[in-house]
Description:
Layout: H1 3-22, E1 30-31, H2 33-39, H3 44-56, E2 60-63, E3 67-70, H4 75-99, H5 102-120, H6 124-142, H7 145-157, H8 159-166, H9 171-187, H10 191-219
Antiparallel strand pairs: 1-3, 2-3
Amino acid sequence: MTANREDAAQSVVTAIREAIVRGDFVPNQRLVEADLSEQFAASRASVRSALLELANDGLVERVQNRGARVRAVSLDEAIEISEVRMVVEGLCAAKAAEQVTAAEVRELKAIGKDMRKAVSGGDVLGYSQLNQRLHRRVREISGQHTASGVLERLRAQSVRHQFKLAMHPGRPAVSLPEHLAIIDAICAHDAAAAEAAARAHLRSVITALREVDQAGSATR
């Protein structure tokens, strides 16, 4: 495959992944190559290559004789993903505490300040975006590139559950002190405390996932 074709296929991968993350494509929705080719102004070959890559990432599944569709992630799988994240994000938080620079300390503290403002102002969407930014920066500061790649794939797979969790009433007020604890430990260069705070946050996520699912079942 030439460089141009690789770039074209990668741009389609990015576009489809972002559409799934935004919820434009919903779980179990069929992904028809011809439609995607038209929607993203890409060749059928680029679309086919993109779907194969997304299948490898766990976002898309191939169904025999029926093409591709958005893979639905069950609650049980979302919890398993969170359990893996608990271990890997704990590692990243610990490494970030060891690696963080003075400039990055100021950046993390600024994110924490913005998160406080978002919660006090009821800005749920803004808080969700800051949440994602914080987790991404911790991964980047840690320098753990393999772990970062794993976490990005896991986050994409469970994005629908994460969105429901982020929009759940009262959730930001619960998760804010958990995130601030991670920030404080990293900024204090306390690797053990940073790992413990990250693990505690993910345990809270698992509990909340179950609660949100039960609340949804009660209203159905």
